[in-house]
Every structure is written in structure tokens, then in C-alpha cells.
Design a protein that fits this description.
The complex is a heterodimer of chains A (584) and B (490). Chain A is mainly alpha-helical and 584 residues long. Chain A is 46% helix and 6% strand. In chain A, strand 6 and strand 7 (487-492) form a beta hairpin. Chain A is globular and about 85 Å long. The two termini of chain A are 15 Å apart. The relative contact order of chain A is 0.14. Residues 1-41 and 47-54 of chain A have low confidence and may be disordered. Chain B has 490 residues and is α/β, with parallel strands linked by helices. In chain B, 33% of the residues lie in helices and 13% in strands. Chain B is built from 13 helices and 13 strands. A seven-stranded mixed beta sheet of chain B has the order 5-10-1-11-12-4-13, sandwiched between helices. In chain B, strands 2-3 form a two-stranded antiparallel sheet. Residues 1-39, 99-103, 220-227, 290-305 and 320-325 of chain B have low confidence and may be disordered. The chains are: A mainly alpha (584), B alpha/beta (490). At the A-B interface, helix 2, helix 5, helix 8, helix 9 and helix 10 of A face helix 5, helix 8, helix 9 and helix 11 of B.
Chain lengths: 584, 490
């Protein structure tokens, strides 16, 4: 349980470092993260001294799950997608509220779907109530399509069973049907005297706020295996699959498979997993994960004109900002769904997506299109998603380098070995030299790598320095701009660095390109991706025992050649995903 | 469609309003001697908040009663005698902040400007977090909480008005990111687990502003008379109450089952959710057996003749179904037009007395960078527009007559402030702020002057003067090291 703290560490430390190292004010925007920072262990705590890679050992793979599976609450995206699916073909989509109408989600525990951050606050309930009210109004706009047009109310019982089954993602009990029939009946009587549509709307609004919709309560079958694993029901499994692959409720095929009892069979799960992956609905869901894993959901706000120093980047425009962000998303999507879906291509490919606005940032010819076009980028400057200009721009400040931010990112998100946060009592500034113009790297070396900060920063900055060739708008630079006594100087960039303390990445690198190529084949990086998918699928912080799920998945992942699609299929088939602990 | 055209007033109402000013005639035709048909007219407090500071030489010159407004502030000429201009206050609390609080410029100004206090000891201002993170309440909430307590209210029990306060944002959602200066300016005295004060986020949509102000408004005055025919609005509240009742019932029936499957802690989470639903349900008006609703327990001064526009006439953000981004063409204009008028209506109808209106700079792309570039020529239109919006707010208040023979502006304090002094330097001194209104008569004879504080007086002092004028008995506010005292000129 303790490592859960570490997982969230970067969110906080990065924010602190960002504020402290920016060298000036920033008028830019960041995502709406409304949480308080969590309390972290002190920097000298043993918590930070463990090597996550080595910790993730497991004597033997689990045959059934003895790992904790919390009661998951649907995330905002899942709520919105589910209601849209429920009302597809019934209501005008424009009348259904957008996901942004729901309360902001917590970023405190790594992922927004983490149950630890899903406090059932009044703010959440208020927003959901409003969402449900507006959705139910949309639902009754066409009673025939909704499936209960008889104004005498004779259809209500069947409607509750049929529609309710899709809302709850399982058949309703008789007591539950009776509850919603009673809601309808009360609404029709004095003092309400609602007409049929309004009474039915009341039922729908009530269903949308019910815990059986908002939470994934896995009843199971009651069967317990000899290893302590508890079998999921077919409906439980249908939801696990649909929310993992689609961020949405099960479709008719999954419901049918659940009813047949087929979702207890590995072959059927694999078949369903591949079907779900091949459906377009998986694209947005996969992108949501990658956005959160790579923290681009937060950093993308840095890819904006107000954040960047106008004196240094006078031509950076809103169109470029939008093009860079879209290009990043398109690259992620392509890496996952096109080609060989391999982690190697994800981290090392020099293919990219540009348009007329962003071509100059990549130093390539304009493709003659405002739409994104796939092009070959300079392989000596770009290797995979991390060196994508949109991503590098997000992982930047407004004026100068961001080696601390970038180093922290690599350690935490790509290697699952986060660095501890700085002590609270230090002055978080990277001061300018009083005697000469120097690079940002030199300023970091002169300050952060001295004294009490050195032990952490030397390791952390080593990763960050590799990316010195990327300026704050993500363009390649051999020289960086630096200010000294009111003048601007151009100084040569040094992006060479020596990495140590990793499982399989130690060595000297001239810049980020060879490093990313090696990282693309790294077992530590592969395991880190597996670990993140695993936590995302389970919507919780990590446990010591998670190694017993992650290690075999990593083995299978590497055996597949690092095929990210196969990873998801294997995850869905794995025993820890198909069972839950009976000991909870 | 213009705002006024969407309001559904009857012809009879319009005829009755003919004696009022033109705008009031269109908006609130039946308010004369009704909205404030009480012995004493309550005083309102509005924080009008704009970004990027000012150009000090493009503000106002002179001193005392002999002062001149610059062309940038030309829109305020009609209100010159309603204003007290406070030139060159400074955020002393920001200067006292510890080294860790090094987020200079916007975030720091945003935190200190309305609260006069920095982040909790040893913690940073949360740069990039809309709830930037002061350790104490903002002046609007501090005054509200004090007056509410004086009236016998609590944090939960609202004794002043049905809606404690409203926070609004005027912004352009069609640009991305939708705001350039994300931030919050209203903070309650409730402190979160990490030591930061809990903020009150602004609403960005007139539709939501309507909801917050008028959702529980029951035409008929002071609640409604049982036995009458319920309005459509009342039926909708009743429907929501029913939804919550039956959804809430599901929580109760599931709790023991969830406890069996997941344990007591998870079941407690479910119970907390059920409690939240229960709170919402309780807050909605009850439909009585004979129809109508029971009286509003909050003791609001709802006006029987106050006409509230239909919610369906409020603009809603349009959503791009492909990108998922909330966008709305013309949103800047829509929020500029609707938010102040909804606030005017909200105050006139006795729904609230406290408001914070944040005018984002997103309606003027690049205005932030232009300040850094010292482009006075390009930023003057921005400041001129901000002044015009402030003037519009004052006009809307002055248009509404009150029972004491004065106007809503007379019975208000409208503070125009922001996060910076000079926009070019991004510093938190050189604050060129102003207040408007006579605070219900307490500032009569005081308005119509410019006072130069020469960067020697903390802005906290102004807050204490406002609190005093509002009748609040604040014994302390903000960072105690500031040692504030009310301004003698007030």
C-alpha cells in the first residue's frame, strides 16, 4: 500500500518545480485541478529508496485473483458515455449534457478514475443531479423510441426492467423494479399529478442517480476458487471489458455473451476484447489513458500562446498550439492502432503528423494542408512520442529549458521510479548568473545539483538534460536563447548525459534520440507501461502484491514484441482481471 | 436575440413600468417600491474583478475632489460622483510572503488581491490551479459570513438571502484554452485538510447563473401560498425531489450488501453519497398537498412581483461533439450581456446581496503578451472595455429604484479590483482600484474623490473600510502581520 504515495508524487513535485524554476511569472492556464496536494512522505523517507522494478517480483503467477478490486465509481467520461449510449437513437445528442458539465475530477492519485480520489462530495452529487435531470428530459422527448409510449402507464413495469437493465448493467431485482414503479405511481398522483411523460422522466432521472448506475458493484457468482479468488458474474465481466476498452457501458453483444455465461471463458473474453478494440469507441478510451499516463491532460495547457515568452517566440500562434496538441493526439492514436502497435514504434518512430501551421516547428516542408498529414520527420531529431513537438512544448516553461520537469517526468511516468519531492524549506529558484550569460542547464548544475538537493537532482536532471535540444515550443535547437543584463544571447546546447541506476538504460548518451531508442526496447519501460495499464484497469493505487499481476503481463508483453494492443487483450484475459479477491 | 427580448414580461407589466428609466422599464417593470418594500434597505457588495492591472498614466489624474478621468475611463463619467478612487494601494501581504511563495505576478496577485493573505505556512501558491490557494477567506465571503452569523445563520443556514453569494465569470469560451487567467477570487473561511481555504468557483454560463440564482425562486413572494396552482417551475422542483428520493432509497438498500462485498469503508462512501443526495433533496422546495410550495425557510426577501426570465432563454455553451471542447461562438458577448443583468435581477429580487464578477481577458487575445511588450497602444482598448463593463454594472444598479427613494447603487458597494498594479510590470503595488456606491448612505459625502495612498497603505485597509460600511464586525482579516486599519478617508 505504501507505494501509492510514490505514484502520485510527480503530480505534486512537478507542480512545485514548475513554479519554482520558471524564472518568472506565468500567465498561462493549466487544467482545472481543484484538489489539495496530498501529503507525501518526507524526502529522506525510506519510501523513496526502493526500486519499483525490483519490488515488482512475484513468486508465481496468480491463477486467480487475490488482489483487491475496489468498488469503482464511473468516471465523468464513463458517466457521460454511458448515458449517451443509453439514449442513442432516442434523444437528440445535442440535448444530452457534455461531460464537462460534471464536477472536476481529482488528479491527486495519479489517474482520474482512481477510487481514492473519487470522494462523493456534494459538488459531485450536485453536478450529477443536474446532468441526470437534463438527460432524463432528453430521454422522454420521444416516448416511442424510449420504449414506453402508453400514456396509461401500463408499459412502465416492462420499461423499468428493460431500460433499467441497461442502466444498471445487469437485470433488476423485483424489489428494484418495484421501487421505480412506485416512483412512477407517486408522480402520477396528487399533489404531483404529472402526466405520463413527466412521471417517466422522473423514473429515468432517478435511475441515472442510482448507485447501481454510478458505481460498479460486482456481485459475483458466489463461487470462490481454492486460491481465494471470487468469480465475477457475466455482467460484472461485461462491464469490466466495456469500461476498459470503451469507457462506456456494455453493448448488446456483451450483454448477450453475459447472459449466455460465455464471459467466464477465456476464449470468449479474448474474442470480445479484440472486437472491442476494433470498434472506434476504443480510440477515445485509449487516448484518454495515454493522456493521463503521460500527464498530457495537464501539460497540454502549457502549449499555449500566453505561456510562451513572446520575446523569444513572437510568431508562436494559437493555430500552432492547436496543431501541436492535435498532432500529439494523432501520433498516439496512430502508434496504438496502426502499424505493429509496438512500444518500440511508440517511443522511437520518426513518423509524425504535421499541418501547415506546425511544419516549421518540425523543420519539414508544409504539407499544403490545414489537416494533419503523416510525414517522415528528421530521424536525428525525433524519436517517438516523447520527442513529439507538442509533447515537448507541454513539458516546457515559457522561456527556457525544463530539464528538471522533464527529468522528473521520465523517472516517474516512463520508468515508474519517481524522484522524491524537494524539501519544503528550500528556496525553489534557479538563479541567473551575475557574471555571464549561461544556459539553463548550467544554472541548474550550479544550484540544484549543489548541497542538499544534489543527491536527487543529479539523478533526475541526468534524464532531463537529454532533452535540452527541445525549446519551449517543441522545436529542435542547437543553441538556446538566454538573457543576461537585458540582452539576449545564443548559447550552444549541451544535451549529453550519463544515466545510471536503471534496470537496463544505464550509459552515456549524446542526446535524447539514442536514449529514446534504447528506452523503446527497455524492460523497465515496458513494465512501467504494463503497471500503468494495470492500475488504470483497476482504478486504484498500487499494492505490493500487484507484481503478481504485472510481472506475467510484462513477460507476455515482451514476448509479443511489445504489442500494445496485445497487452490489453492479455490484461483482459489474465486471471487477476477476471476474478476478484474474496477476502475483502 | 438580445437579452431583453428573451424576458417574458406581460404587456400589463410593461405599462406599469413606464415611469421608470428605460432599462428598468424593460427589465424590471414592477419593482418600484416593491423590491425593497422594507423599512431598511440592505446593502450589497459586489467585487468586480479584471486582469492585467492598469496603465497608471492612463487612469485618472488630480486628487481629492479635483480629479479627471482619463479617456480610458470615459465610460465612468456619469458615475464620477458615485466613485471613490483609491490610487496606489499596495498588497503588503504579498510583500510579506515567504520565499517559497515565489509565484510572482498573476498567481500571487490573484491569491492576495481579495484575501490579503498568502498560502498556508510552508506551502506554495498553487500556480496553475484555479483555486490558487490562500490560507484565508476573501473579503466578500468574510463579510457575508459575519453578517450571516450576526443574523443567526451558520455555514449551512443562510439567514440573509436564499442564495448566499454568486460568483460569475465573463469570458470567451470560443478560444482555447477558454480562459487566459484561470483563477478564483472568492474563498470561504472553511479551510481544507491541506490548509488552503476552500474556494467558490465562478459560473461561466448564464444558464448556470440562472440556476444558482433562481432555481428555487418561487414567484409569489417570500415563498408561496399553499393551495395555489403550482407553476411549471414548482412542478419541476418537485420532480427533482422525487428523483432524489427514489435514487436515495437505492443507496439505503444497497449499503449492507456493499459492506458485505467491499467492507465497511466502501459502504461509508456510499452513505456519504446518499447524504449528499439527501442534502440536495432537502434544499428543494416541497410541493404541498394543495399545490404551491411551502415558504422558503431561508428567509429570503423574494419579491412577489419580481419577474424572472425563463431558464430556457439563457444561453448555454455549445459543445463541439468531435473535440469535446466547450465552445460557443459569441460567448464573450453573451456573458458580457447576461451576467450583469442576471446579477441586477438577482439583487433586485432579493436572491442575494453578494457577488463576484470576474471579467477574463480572453475576449482580447494577446492582451497579456502585449502588456509584457509594453504595447500601450494595443492594450488601451482592453482597459477601455473593462471600464465600460464596470460602468455598465453601475448603471444597472442605478437603474433600480429602492424603497428608501434611492437606488440599488446607492445601497451597494461595488469594488473594482484585480490581481496586478501596473500591467506592464506585473507588480502587486501601484494598485489603481476604486469603489462605487454609497454603502446605503454610509459613504454619502465621501464619494466623488480620488485618494492617493502613494504605495504606503495596504489594500487590506480598504477591505476593513468596506466591511465596516457593510455592517460587518471583522476583528481580523488577512495576514495579521499587515496590521490593517480602516481608511480614515472612508
Amino acid at each position: 500500500m505504501k507505494r501509492s504515495y510514490k505514484f502520485a508524487s510527480f503530480a505534486v513535485s512537478a507542480a512545485v518545480l514548475f513554479a519554482g524554476c520558471s524564472g518568472g511569472e506565468s500567465g498561462g492556464t493549466r487544467p482545472d485541478i481543484v484538489d489539495d496536494p496530498i501529503d507525501l512522505p518526507p524526502p529522506d523517507s525510506d519510501e523513496w529508496k526502493r526500486n519499483p522494478t525490483k519490488d515488482l517480483a512475484c513468486a508465481e503467477p496468480l491463477t486467480t485473483n487475490t488482489l483487491s478490486s475496489p468498488m469503482q465509481r464511473l468516471s465523468n467520461v464513463e458517466i457521460a458515455n454511458s448515458i449517451r449510449a443509453l439514449l442513442a437513437g432516442v434523444a437528440d445528442p445535442a440535448q444530452i449534457p457534455h461531460v464537462t458539465s460534471l464536477a472536476p475530477e481529482s488528479g491527486r492519485f495519479g489517474y482520474t478514475n482512481n477510487v481514492a480520489g473519487q470522494e462523493p462530495t456534494r459538488v459531485f452529487a450536485d453536478a450529477l443531479e443536474e446532468f441526470a435531470v437534463r438527460s432524463s428530459a432528453a430521454a422522454v422527448s420521444n416516448l416511442a423510441k424510449l420504449g414506453c409510449a402508453n400514456t396509461d402507464g401500463s408499459c412502465v413495469g416492462k420499461f423499468v426492467r428493460d431500460f433499467g437493465k441497461r442502466v444498471f448493467r445487469r437485470p433488476l431485482t423485483d424489489v428494484e423494479v418495484g421501487n421505480f414503479q412506485a416512483a412512477y405511481d407517486e408522480a402520477r398522483k396528487a399533489p404531483y399529478n404529472f402526466d405520463h411523460a413527466m412521471a417517466l422522466e422522473t423514473v429515468v432521472g432517478s435511475l441515472f442517480q442510482s448507485p447501481q448506475f454510478v458505481y460498479r458493484i460486482e456481485e459475483g457468482t458466489g463461487d470462490v476458487t481454492e486460491n481465494g479468488g471470487k468469480s465475477l458474474s457475466g455482467y460484472d465481466m461485461a462491464s469490466r471489458l466495456s469500461y476498459l476498452f470503451w469507457d462506456s457501458m456494455p453493448d448488446a453483444d456483451l450483454f448477450a455473451a453475459a447472459e449466455r455465461g460465455d464471459l467466464s471463458k477465456t476464449a470468449e473474453i479474448e474474442k470480445q476484447a479484440r472486437r472491442l478494440l476494433n470498434d472506434d469507441r476504443s480510440r477515445q478510451a485509449v487516448l484518454t489513458f495515454y493522456n493521463e499516463w503521460l500527464h498530457f491532460d495537464r501539460f497540454s495547457a502549457n502549449v499555449s500562446v500566453p505561456v510562451k515568452d513572446r520575446a523569444f517566440f513572437p510568431d508562436f500562434s494559437d493555430a500552432q498550439s492547436e496543431g501541436l496538441k492535435a498532432g500529439f493526439h494523432r501520433t498516439v492514436e496512430s502508434a496504438f492502432f496502426d502499424g505493429d502497435h509496438s512500444l518500440e514504434a511508440f517511443f522511437a518512430s520518426s513518423r509524425g503528423f504535421v499541418n501547415d501551421d506546425t511544419a516549421s516547428i518540425y523543420g519539414v516542408e508544409k504539407p499544403g494542408s490545414k489537416d494533419l498529414v503523416e510525414v517522415q520527420l528528421n530521424a536525428e531529431q525525433r524519436a517517438g512520442i516523447i520527442t513529439n513537438a507538442g509533447f515537448m512544448s507541454g513539458l516546457s516553461h515559457g522561456t527556457e529549458g525544463a530539464s528538471i520537469l522533464r527529468g522528473g517526468f521520465v523517472m516517474d511516468r516512463l520508468l515508474c521510479a519517481p524522484s522524491p519531492p524537494p524539501p519544503e524549506d528550500i528556496v525553489r529558484e534557479i538563479p541567473f548568473s551575475q557574471t555571464e550569460a549561461i544556459t539553463y542547464r548550467q544554472r541548474v548544475e550550479n544550484t540544484a545539483e549543489k548541497g542538499q538537493c544534489a543527491s536527487c537532482h543529479m539523478a533526475l536532471d541526468a534524464f532531463g538534460f537529454l532533452f535540452e535540444n527541445y525549446n519551449p515550443i517543441g522545436a529542435w535547437q542547437d543553441e538556446e536563447q538566454a538573457r543576461f543584463k537585458g540582452e539576449t544571447f545564443r548559447l550552444p546546447v549541451d544535451s549529453s548525459s550519463t544515466i545510471s541506476g536503471t534496470l537496463d538504460l544505464d550509459g552515456a548518451y549524446p542526446n535524447a534520440i539514442p536514449f529514446m531508442k534504447k528506452l523503446a526496447k527497455s524492460e523497465q519501460a515496458a513494465q512501467c507501461l504494463v503497471e500503468n495499464w494495470w492500475l488504470w484497469a483497476n482504478a486504484r493505487t498500487e499494492l505490493e502484491e500487484d507484481g503478481c499481476a504485472i510481472v506475467p503481463l510484462t513477460t507476455a508483453f515482451l514476448k509479443s514484441g511489445g504489442d500494445m494492443q496485445e497487452l490489453l487483450v492479455e490484461l483482459a484475459k489474465s486471471a487477476p482481471f477476471r476474478f476478484r479477491s474474496a477476502a475483502q | 436575440m438580445e437579452f431583453e427580448k428573451k424576458l417574458r414580461f406581460s404587456r400589463r407589466s410593461l405599462l406599469k413600468a413606464s415611469a421608470l428609466s428605460p432599462l428598468a422599464a424593460q427589465l424590471l417593470p414592477e419593482l418600484t417600491n416593491v423590491a425593497y418594500a422594507q423599512n431598511s434597505v440592505p446593502t450589497n457588495f459586489i467585487v468586480f474583478y479584471t486582469y492585467q492591472g492598469n496603465w497608471p498614466d492612463q487612469w485618472a489624474s488630480g486628487t481629492g475632489r479635483n480629479f479627471q478621468l482619463s479617456p480610458t475611463l470615459k465610460a465612468l463619467e456619469p458615475f464620477k460622483n458615485d466613485l471613490i478612487l483609491t490610487k496606489r494601494l499596495f498588497m503588503k501581504s504579498a510583500e510579506l510572503s515567504p520565499p517559497g511563495d515565489n509565484s510572482s505576478g498573476h498567481p500571487q496577485g490573484q491569491v492576495h488581491s481579495t484575501t490579503s493573505i498568502g498560502p498556508p505556512s510552508g506551502k506554495p501558491i498553487r500556480d496553475g490551479n484555479p483555486a490558487n490557494g490562500p490560507a484565508g477567506p476573501s473579503i466578500d465571503q468574510a463579510i457575508y459570513e459575519d453578517l450571516n452569523a450576526q443574523a443567526g445563520g451558520t455555514k449551512v443556514l443562510k439567514k440573509l438571502t436564499p442564495v448566499d453569494s454568486i460568483q460569475m465569470q465573463i469570458l470567451d469560451r470560443s478560444v482555447s484554452p477558454p480562459t487566459q487567467m484561470l483563477g478564483r477570487i472568492s474563498y470561504t473561511s472553511t479551510i481544507g485538510a491541506s490548509g488552503y481555504a476552500i474556494s467558490k468557483p465562478p459560473v461561466q454560463s448564464p444558464d448556470t447563473a440562472w440556476k444558482n440564482l433562481f432555481e428555487t425562486y418561487a414567484p409569489g413572494g417570500g415563498g408561496t401560498v399553499a393551495g395555489g396552482t403550482p407553476s411549471n417551475e414548482q412542478l419541476r422542483f418537485a420532480q427533482r425531489k422525487l428523483m432524489l428520493k427514489y435514487a436515495g432509497g437505492q443507496f439505503n438498500s444497497l449499503k449492507s450488501r456493499v459492506s458485505d462485498i467491499y467492507g465497511a469503508t466502501t459502504a461509508d462512501r456510499l452513505e456519504a453519497h446518499a447524504n449528499a443526495l439527501n442534502e440536495i433533496e432537502k434544499g428543494l422546495p416541497q410541493l404541498s398537498a394543495g399545490g404551491g410550495t411551502v415558504p422558503d425557510p431561508s428567509g429570503g426577501t423574494t419579491n412577489a412581483l419580481c419577474k424572472v426570465p425563463e431558464r430556457s432563454t439563457m444561453p448555454n455553451p455549445k459543445v463541439d461533439p468531435v473535440s469535446g471542447m466547450s465552445r460557443a461562438s459569441g460567448w464573450w458577448g453573451a456573458t458580457k450581456e447576461y451576467m450583469p443583468k442576471l446579477l441586477q435581477l438577482g439583487i433586485a429580487c432579493g436572491r442575494t446581496r453578494f457577488a463576484a464578477v470576474q471579467v477574463e481577458d480572453s475576449g482580447f487575445p494577446d492582451v497579456h503578451g502585449w502588456h509584457h511588450d509594453q504595447r500601450k497602444d494595443l492594450t488601451i482598448p482592453f482597459h477601455t472595455d473593462m471600464a465600460a463593463q464596470y460602468a455598465n454594472m453601475l448603471k444597472l444598479l442605478k437603474d433600480i429604484p429602492t424603497a428608501d427613494g434611492k437606488t440599488m447603487l446607492h445601497n451597494s458597494v461595488v469594488l473594482w479590483c484585480g490581481e496586478l498594479g501596473s500591467g506592464a510590470t506585473h507588480a502587486t503595488n501601484d494598485l489603481h482600484w476604486m469603489v462605487a456606491g454609497q454603502a446605503g448612505g454610509k459613504w454619502e459625502g465621501k464619494t466623488g474623490q480620488l485618494i492617493d495612498y502613494n504605495n504606503q497603505t495596504p489594500h487590506t485597509n480598504l477591505f476593513l473600510s468596506i466591511a465596516s460600511a457593510m455592517g460587518a464586525k471583522l476583528t481580523a482579516f488577512g495576514d495579521p502581520r499587515v496590521n490593517p486599519k480602516p481608511l480614515t478617508e472612508f
